[in-house]
Specification:
- The complex is a heterodimer of chains A (207) and B (710).
- Chain A has three domains: 51 residues, no CATH class; 76 residues, Roll (Ubiquitin-like (UB roll)), CATH 3.10.20.30; 68 residues, DNA polymerase, domain 1 (Orthogonal Bundle).
- Chain A has nine helices and five strands; from the N terminus they run ααααββαβββαααα.
- In chain A, a hairpin with a 2-residue loop joins strand 3 and strand 4.
- Helices cover 24% and strands 24% of the residues of chain B.
- In chain B, the strands form seven sheets. Chain B has a seven-stranded mixed beta sheet with strand order 3-5-1-12-9-10-11, with helices on both faces. A five-stranded mixed beta sheet of chain B has the order 7-15-14-13-8, covered by helices on one side. Chain B has a five-stranded mixed beta sheet with strand order 18-19-24-25-28, with helices on both faces.
- Chain B is globular and about 75 Å long.
- The N and C termini of chain B lie far apart (55 Å).
- The mean pLDDT of chain B is 96.
- Classes of the chains: A alpha+beta (207), B alpha+beta (710).
- Chains A and B meet through helix 2, helix 4, helix 5, helix 6 and helix 7 of A and helix 1, helix 2, helix 3 and helix 14 of B.
């Protein structure tokens, strides 16, 4: 609660006083669903949401365990980018339409912008930052450099995370299959053919 | 320049950063006390805001400010009497609404979630006026643009095509298209006191952004630090400083805290420009043996009611083919839409779709091969400016491309070639775009260990600026690429132009060239060797001998007087092979060959990717991309990636770039002309012409969706 109050440092004293008044009122309310409903009817719902606010979340990101308390509205993508400062996963649409935010959750590729962070409790998340082993790049990262599978680089993290999962999924039988199953990752610079070449190379190395 | 390193297939110098997530884009800088801004869009399309209820938003948890037209702290440069008034939309400066989605409030809060929620609580009541978003309904309201740049043009006689033995007169339509770079437009602004601000923003030109922000806030340019080291694509959408960038600087000033403002994808459909909906009429007149006697090109595009946008969509018809008579007319229709912006191949991409389609129609009418028709009307001089070309190898482009795609397999009778259950067809479309060179500076510094650092305030929106510059420097200095770093995207570096118009390698590359040459001469002098020596030199020994911890110099570079005696263009010929499914109307671009005369190619690997990428953009233009308006509400209905279709991986098959790679002798010391635009210009026509060849159906309205073929 301490931190939350600090977060409300506000140049306009009036609203700060307003809030303090309401929050002490809230602390007197037993937080039953009924009380929440009544509070909502009295337009206190904003305050309640914030007071109840943070939800515990335990997850592992790139092998590092995190025990957090977060706003339940935070997506996995925003948690990674804004709070854990792992900005390798990108936001291109925030609607699961572009794939720039692709990460692995327990090994499966997901759009992290479509996943509320709190629903990942107990999961192991791998982001682009966790793909290489120290200085040694993952073969897919090497192949993307070699085949120039990107230009601006903004979709690249998502492409690579998708590509690594694709190889595991075994959906690399032919160029057409790779293209089809990589079509959730948009590249506006148009590096698609080089991306397919990179994936084919990694697949061939592994078979 | 020796061929030794230029043209080497060097992998991107920033590749490792990009594949590891280590490349920091503008929204990714961590600043203490960072607050988050979210814009609230107007829900009407024309009129004004009468009142706003922001109480709920202001009282929502974590909210720091709700800036509206009713309480805005204002921006000095918004005043009409400011020495450099801000152009375009002035956010929150008044209560007028010009288009749907125009921001009426900026909510700033402690977190993105809190700001987003609070933004949903802002209420407004409006005075609604009649709005006009329907281009077709307003077609008779086209006006000649105010600026003198796009006046009517006549060479010989206007509309001479009408009297020719063979006449083509057709209308072509291209919808509004969105740049849609993958990165959301974002700005972080952080003030240091009242007179200094640092801005991290998605920009194609940090010097331009620096100037705009300095003008807006009445600051000295050197007190505005702009950073844009990595840019997640732009395609023209970051050529200018947008209203939301000014708004984020304003909010940060008000709150005395850093503010990050990120647009949503939907907001990017209205706030950062688009390629405007354009209807073009082409009139072509030819003799029966295919000699053009007249070209008329009329174009009418949408623009915004609050700011005029123009582009040279008719220009290509003035110079690409020989014709004694040519005339163009260009008009714009102001509508209640967000202002357009230059988008990859601005003007020419639109114009060449019409001209190159019409030329294909003429070839068909003449029963002539489309390449033969182009050769028949080939120009050895620029007929518009009556100047020789600085270099032009478009003929070679035709030959190489035809050979590569197997043009001899093209059926002369459309709709007659079958491959399995598909109809197959071939098409050609050509592109041209002015080759420019702007004034640019570069600083070269060599450390005592012989490593080299080069700085210039240019950008890299994706083409691989640093890679090309490294190759140029490596070649001239004889220092391995791995020992050279090139830094960009920082307004405190030596001045460079905005990255636009395919001119970065020409402008900044020349500055790097000149700086490296000057550096080398100084080193030779220090070594007591003749300045023009080509003997190897041990830089490290020279530095040591003179007790220098490093040696640096800055060089300015710009176009020569001699260059003015030539007309300079890059040229491309795109060859497409398509399959069209006769039952479903589905179009597949089986092969695309882009053959390019862009002078010397500095970085083969990245240039090839850039050409292929432009072709992908051209496939989008040809087959999938269209921003769709609902004129009942004056709002785009497909403002997202699910409904606005940019090409995806499965849309792309075999694309190949071929470079003529002959240096232009006049444009700059490197001999390079630029490829960013011509990679897309001409692609849509090549595909449309191939679809005609496959089906016998001429689609004059982009995109060529299946419903237009069945």
């Amino acid at each position: 609660m301490q931190n939350d109050l600090q977060n409300y440092e506000n140049p306009r004293d009036e609203s700060r006083r307003d809030f303090l008044k309401q929050s002490s009122l809230l602390s007197a309310i037993a937080l039953t669903p009924g009380a929440i409903r009544r509070a909502a009817e009295n337009k206190w719902d904003e305050k309640i949401a914030d007071e109840m606010g943070k939800v515990p979340l335990s997850l592992e990101v790139n092998g590092v365990p995190y025990n957090l308390k977060i706003d339940p509205r935070v997506t996995l993508l925003d948690l990674l980018r804004e709070q854990l400062h792992l900005t390798g996963s990108k936001k291109g649409c925030d609607r699961g339409q572009c794939g720039a935010c692709t990460v692995h959750a327990d090994g499966a590729r997901i759009n992290s912008c479509l996943s509320l962070a709190v629903t990942n409790d107990g999961k192991k998340i791998t982001t682009i930052e966790g793909l290489s082993r120290g200085d040694e790049l993952h073969p897919m990262q090497e192949a993307f450099i070699k085949h120039d599978g990107f230009q601006c680089g903004y979709c690249t993290s998502g492409q690579i995370m998708s590509a690594v999962a694709l190889v595991k999924e075994g959906r690399t039988q032919c160029a057409e299959q790779i293209s089809e199953f990589m079509s959730g990752n948009i590249c506006r610079c148009g590096a698609y053919s080089n991306i397919v070449k990179a994936i084919q190379e990694v697949k061939n190395q592994q078979s | 320049m020796d061929k030794s390193l230029i043209g080497d297939p060097l992998s991107r110098v920033d590749g490792r950063l990009k594949v590891t997530g280590g490349a920091k884009y503008s929204g990714e800088w961590e600043l203490p006390g960072l607050a988050y801004g979210v814009l609230v869009p107007a829900t009407i399309t024309n009129g004004s805001v009468v009142s706003m209820d922001v109480k709920a938003a202001e009282r929502a948890p974590g909210v720091l400010a709700v800036i509206t037209p009713f309480n805005t702290p204002g921006v000095p440069g918004f005043k009409p009497d400011a020495s450099q008034p801000v152009r375009g939309l002035k956010l929150f400066n008044d209560k007028l609404i010009y288009f749907n989605g125009q921001p009426i409030a900026l909510v700033v809060a402690e977190s993105f979630e809190k700001a987003t929620h609070a933004a949903s609580l802002v209420k407004a009541s409006y005075q609604q006026d009649v709005f006009e978003t329907d281009f077709d309904k307003n077609r008779d309201k086209g006006v000649v643009p105010q600026g003198g740049k796009y006046k009517d043009y006549v060479r010989g006689e206007a509309d001479a095509y009408k009297k020719a033995p063979v006449v083509i007169e057709q209308e072509y339509r291209q919808p509004s298209e969105m740049h849609n770079p993958m990165e959301l437009h974002v700005t972080i602004a952080a003030w240091d006191g009242d007179d200094k601000v640092t801005v991290y923003t998605k920009s194609q030109g940090v010097i331009g952004t620096q100037r705009s922000i300095a003008n807006a806030f009445g600051l000295k340019p050197e007190n505005v630090q702009v950073n844009s080291r990595f840019v997640g694509g732009a395609f023209g959408s970051s050529l200018r400083t947008w209203p939301h960038e000014i708004a984020s600087v304003m909010a940060a000033k008000l709150l005395k805290r850093p503010v990050k403002l990120t647009l949503t994808r939907e907001q990017m459909f209205t706030l950062v420009g688009h390629r405007p909906l354009t209807i073009q009429k082409i009139g072509l007149g030819a003799t029966s043996d295919g000699k053009l006697v007249g070209i008329t090109h009329e174009s009418i595009s949408q623009t915004a009611v609050y700011e005029e946008f123009t582009e040279g969509s008719v220009n290509v018809s003035r110079f690409l083919y020989e014709s004694p008579n040519a005339n163009t007319r260009y008009k714009v229709i102001p509508l209640n839409v967000g202002v357009p912006a230059p988008m990859r191949g601005p003007g020419e991409a639109t114009g060449s779709f019409a001209l190159e389609s019409a030329l294909d129609e003429l070839a068909f009418a003449l029963k002539m091969d489309p390449i033969e028709l182009r050769l028949k009307n080939y120009t050895e001089r620029d007929p518009e400016r009556n100047l020789p070309w600085s270099s032009k190898y478009l003929k070679e482009c035709y030959t190489r491309g035809a050979e590569r795609i197997g043009w001899e397999n093209r059926p002369s009778k459309p709709g007659t070639l079958r491959e399995g259950e598909w109809l197959a067809g071939y098409g050609i479309g050509c592109g041209a775009f002015g080759a420019f060179r702007g004034r640019a500076l570069a600083k070269v510094r060599m450390m005592a260990d012989g490593t080299v650092n080069i700085q210039s305030a240019t950008s890299d929106i994706g083409p691989g600026t640093g890679t090309a510059m490294t190759l140029i420097a490596s070649d001239l200095l004889g220092v391995p690429a791995g020992r050279i770093t090139f830094e960009l995207g920082n307004s405190s570096f030596p001045t460079a132009p905005t990255q636009g118009g395919s001119s970065t390698v020409s402008s900044v590359g020349s500055a790097v060239h000149d700086a490296c040459m000057a550096f080398k001469q100084k080193m030779y002098a220090l070594a007591g060797m003749p300045e023009n020596s080509s003997d190897p030199i041990d830089y490290v020994a020279v530095l040591k001998q003179h007790n220098l911890p490093f040696f640096e110099l800055t060089e300015e570079s710009q176009s020569s007087q001699q260059a003015k005696n030539y007309s300079m263009y890059s040229f491309s010929a795109h060859f497409a092979k398509v399959h069209v499914h006769p039952l479903t109307g589905a179009v597949k671009v089986k092969r695309l060959i882009a053959v390019v005369d862009a002078g010397r190619i500095v970085s083969y690997k990245t240039a090839s990717s850039q050409m292929i990428g432009g072709a992908v953009g051209g496939i989008g233009m040809a087959l999938t991309e269209e921003a769709i308006f609902d004129h009942k509400y004056g709002r785009y209905v497909n403002g997202n990636f699910a409904d606005y279709h940019v090409p995806v991986n499965a849309d792309i098959q075999d694309i190949e770039a071929i470079f003529i790679d002959k240096p232009d002798p006049y444009i700059n010391p490197i001999g390079t002309k630029g490829i960013g635009e011509i990679s897309l210009i001409g692609v849509a026509a090549a595909i449309a012409n191939a679809v005609f060849n496959a089906t016998g159906k001429r689609v004059r309205e982009l995109p060529i969706t299946p419903d237009k073929l069945i």
